[in-house]
Amino acid sequence: NSLQADLLEWILSLYRPVLESADVNQAMDRFDRTRVLCTIHAGPFGVDEMNRLISLRLQGPQSTATDDYRGKPILITANDYELDLFNGDTGLLWPDQTGILRACFRGADAGIRELPIYSLPEYVSAWAMTVHKSQGSEFESVLLVLPNDENSNAVSRELLYTGVTRAREQLRIHSPVEVLVRACENITLRGSGLARKLGWKNL
C-alpha cells in the first residue's frame, strides 16, 4: 500500500529542481513541466497522501504537507474575487528580497504577482492534485496514480482518458492491473483512443 520506489524516485528527480531554482520564474517553469495526478483525495493513493509523501521526501522527516517553505507549490481551493484568485489556481511560495515567504502567481501578462500568505483564501499543497483539477492543462511528464482495488469504482474511462492526455511527453501509471483494465473496459466515452494511447491493441 505505497507508491513504487522507482516511481517515487522518478517524480522526486523531476520535482527537486523546483526547490533548487535560482528565482521564482525558473521555479514556476520547472514545476509546470511535471505533475502527479490522482483520482481520489483520501486513501494511500489519494492526493492527500501523495502530497504528504512528496513533502516528506523533499523536506525531511519533520515536514508535513501543511508546512510552508521556499518552492512549495500551492493550489487555491476557494474563490477570492478581491484578490482575483479562484478555486483551481496554482502558485508557488517564494521569499521576497527581505526573505519573507510570499505567494507568487503568474498573471495574464506572464508577470509575477506576489501576495502575502496570510491574505490568501484556503489553499493546499499542489505537488499532487486530482485529475479533475488538472483539466485544461498539459505537462511534459505525468505520474498518474490510480487507487487500489477497494476504491477502483472512482476511476471511469473518461477520468482515465483525461489523466492520460495531460501528458505531452512522459506518462507513468501506478495502478493494480485489474483497476486499469476495469477502467478501460468501462466504455462510457466511445472513440476516445485511450487504448491506442496506452499501446493496447485489443481493447
Your description of this structure?
It is a single chain. The protein is α/β, with parallel strands linked by helices and 203 residues long. It has one domain: P-loop containing nucleotide triphosphate hydrolases (Rossmann fold, 3-Layer(aba) Sandwich). The chain is 31% helix and 23% strand. A five-stranded antiparallel beta sheet has the order 5-4-3-2-6, covered by helices on one side. Strand 3 and strand 4 form a beta hairpin. The longest helix has 15 residues. It is globular, with a radius of gyration of 17 Å. The chain starts with a helix and ends in a 5-residue tail after the last helix. The mean pLDDT is 88.
Secondary structure blueprint with pairings:
Blueprint: H1 5-19, H2 24-31, E1 34-38, H3 47-59, E2 73-76, E3 90-95, E4 101-106, E5 112-116, E6 123-125, E7 128-130, H4 131-134, E8 139-145, H5 157-164, E9 167-174, H6 177-185, H7 194-198
Helix pairs in contact: 1-2
Sequence of strands across the biggest β-sheet? 5-4-3-2-6
What's the number of domains?
1
Taking the sheet with the most strands, its summary is: 5 strands, antiparallel
Residues in helices, as a percent range = 25-40%
CATH fold title: Rossmann fold
CATH class category name: Alpha Beta
Briefly note the structural class of the backbone.
Answer: alpha/beta
Order of helices and strands: HHEHEEEEEEHEHEHH
Q: Assembly state here? A: single chain
Concise account of the structure shown:
With 203 residues, the chain is an alpha/beta fold. It contains seven helices and nine strands; from the N terminus they run ααβαββββββαβαβαα. It has helices at residues 5-19, 24-31, 47-59, 131-134, 157-164, 177-185, 194-198, and strands spanning 34-38, 73-76, 90-95, 101-106, 112-116, 123-125, 128-130, 139-145, 167-174.
